[in-house]
Each structure stands twice: as C-alpha cells, then as structure tokens.
Amino acid sequence: MKHLSVLLILTTASIFFVPPLVNAAQPAASPREKNRVRGQTLEAFIQQALTNGDDNDFGPNLSRILDLKPNHRTKGFERLREMCADDRDRSVDVVVEKVSDSEQLKPVWVIFFAKRVLSRATDSVWFKLRPDGSIEKALRSTGKITEDGHGVPGSGVAVDLDSDEARRLLKREFDFWLKGIGLKKKAGPAAPVKAAPSSKP
Fold first, then answer.
1. Where does the chain have alpha helices with state H?
2. pLDDT value at position 183?
3. Residue 28 has what pLDDT?
4. Which of 159, 9, 153, 30 lies closest to 91, judged by CA?
5. Alpha carbons 139 and 143: distance in angstroms, whole number
6. Nearest Cα to Cα of residue 56 among 42, 40, 68
7. Which residues of the chain have pLDDT under 50?
8. Helix, strand, or coil here: 163?
9. What b/e sequence results for 117-129 when a residue is b if at least 16 CB atoms lie within 10 Å of its CB, and e otherwise?
10. Per residue in 89-123, pLDDT tens?
11. Pick from 122, 115, 44, 32: which is nearest to 74 by CA?
12. What's the CA gap between 92 and 18, in Å, rounded?
C-alpha cells in the first residue's frame, strides 16, 4: 500500500467525520448501540448487520479516502466509548449494493473504525475489508482538537498502517465485535436515544 501523500491531509469535515459517533460525551445508548452483535464469524456478523444494522452512508471526503463511491449506502453498528473497556469510540459499517432486480442487499466492503480521544488530539484506525476478511486498506489518522472537542483545520493526517500493525489492530477489532472482548456490560436496559448523524475523523 502506498503511503498517503500530503494531498490526504484531512479537513476538519473529514478527519472529524464520524457519522454515528456523535456527542460521545453522552452516556445514553444510540439506536446503533442497542443491537448487540455476537456473531462467531465475520460472515455471521455481516449477515447480522444486513438484517439488524442501522442505515448510514459516508460523505464525500471519507469516501474519497476509503476509495468508495460518495454516499454509498451502509448498514452497521456503533459502540460509544462508555461501552468500551479501552475508552475508544467504535463503529462498523457494511457497504452494500442491491442485487439486480431484487430488494436483497449484498455486502461489498466492511469498514471498521476505532477512535481514541487523547488530551488534545485524536488517534483513529480505519480498516476497509473485503467480505472474506482480507484487508484492502488499513489507515491511521491523527488530528488535533480544541478544548471543546472540535477539530483543528489542517491538522489531520492519514497514513497507511504497516502489515504487522494492521494485523494486530484488526485482531483487536475482531475480538471486540465478534467475541465481545472489551465490551462493557450494562447494569440494566437503556432506552435508545436517536442522535443526529454528524461528522467521522
């Protein structure tokens, strides 16, 4: 994979565009968070997302970085940092297309995302996978944030992960999503709260 050039320095709208991961300071569960996926395989997980996942799409900036068509339809889930033992916001989106002359959806790509907010910066990883789990693209993006949590324009940079780190971090995400490792248990049922989609880093 080629190292991303300076042309992929992200704007605030792209580096901080996290459609379902908005307002992470709120502990309430979002609609995507209510669906607890515990598939034993990636294939089972994808089918769960196609059946129960929330509708989403990626904006043009993120689509360009991930080599996707703008506003391509996705089905997926999110887990806010309050539910993750490592204090990361997470989402997974299955990029789908309609089967010709049918209402059925077929998976095209699977996008895993995990973001950690540090004192005045974000550290995020992105994985673009084929439905069989092989890696098409693995990126790390970083960016500065202001005291009130907004992205600093021009501070975002994305680079390709090397193969060893990509495999290690992808295993962490598989363990989380497919096995529930690192997913905090809630004390009781939480009413889902509909949050307006916003912007992913």
1. 12-15, 42-52, 60-65, 163-179
2. 94
3. 47
4. 30
5. 13
6. 68
7. 1-29, 31, 33-37, 39, 187-201
8. helix
9. beeeebebbbbbb
10. 999 999 998 888 777 889 999 999 999 998 889 99
11. 32
12. 11
pLDDT at 44: 94
Q: Which residue type is seen at 131?
A: P
- Can you name the residues that pair with 135 across neighbouring β-strands? 129
| 30 contacts 78 by C-beta, under 8 angstroms | yes
The side-by-side arrangement of strands in the sheet containing 135-144 is 54-57, 73-79, 89-98, 105-117, 121-129, 135-144, 157-160
Q: Which amino acid is at 147?
A: E
Residue count of the chain = 201
Q: What pLDDT, on a 0 to 100 scale, did the predictor assign at position 153?
A: 84
- Please tell me the pTM assigned to this model: 0.72
d(CA 7, CA 27): 36
Contact 110, 94 (CB under 8 A): yes
Cβ–Cβ under 8 Å, residues 162 and 138: no
Q: Detail the DSSP E strand segments found in the chain.
A: 54-57, 73-79, 89-98, 105-117, 121-129, 135-144, 157-160
List C-alpha distances in Å: 185 to 161, 182, 188, 189, 190.
Answer: 31, 9, 9, 10, 12
